Amino acid sequence: MTTDTEKIFSFLDTLAQTTDELYLEAIIEACGKWLSGEASPVVSENVSKEDIRRGIQLAVLKGMKQNAQPHHQMTPDSIGMLIGHIASKLSVNEHNLTLLDPAAGTGNLLYTVMNAVGNNVTATAVEIDELLVRLSAVVAELLEQPVTFYVQDALRPLLVDPVDITISDVPVGYYPDDDNALNYEMMPTEGHAYAHHLFIEQSMNHTKPGGHGIFIVPANLFESGQSTLLHPFLKKKTIIRAVIQLPDSLFKSTTHAKSILVLQKPFPEMTATRDVLLAKVPNMSDKHALALFLQKIDMWVSE
Asked: How far is CA 1 from CA 4, 49, 303, in A?
């Protein structure tokens, strides 16, 4: 039996292959036809937002393989769903939750989290690539998710109000604009700043007091060359709540390994903080071990 996810992918892929346009451009056009009612996949009456997201994601992944670009990388679903679980638990008592993704890309991570959190959530997405913003915007309409988009370098001044939770699969590497980087505490005295450091700083600047930042970061974040700048910033401006190591099996090599870093912005009513949660995600194909791990996350949040 064909699933709704497969039907949506087949619908988009079939339309995309009937044009000479770039595949991702064709996906945007196909989603537009779906929105207008000109053409649509034959899916269940109660098709879920996750089925829609996953179906579009499969088509986008195919497009990215055909037109590979270094910054066109999509956060794996397994990681996105884990971040969605953490975000939903951290926001369980929040009404009208606000989210920010300063490196939104296609929006897949953001929509995974929004779908996990549920109703009463609005988001802001920042992305410098105009094609990805167009793609992300049409997906937001299909998912009926309220998202405001900014096409810009997220490390330049953002006209975004502070949010409850910032999420980001932070871009890793050097940030080339030294003049702009001088506005950040983690700009080194010599050489370029690490972009991933600046994204964390910018994100926490746009997070409400008491709010959280959930970041996908290099596993060696705290031992990297500019960690002497990172440690004082985190100590002064944030509370480190958790460092969660992701399974090596998710990455091509250990040099590309990632972790999830959960920060909280200090707030006036803050009392003594608990120890940092240090954990490693089990093999995600081991359902029993993963269920136990998620229980551990739930207990950590409730404490």
From this structure: 10, 20, 43
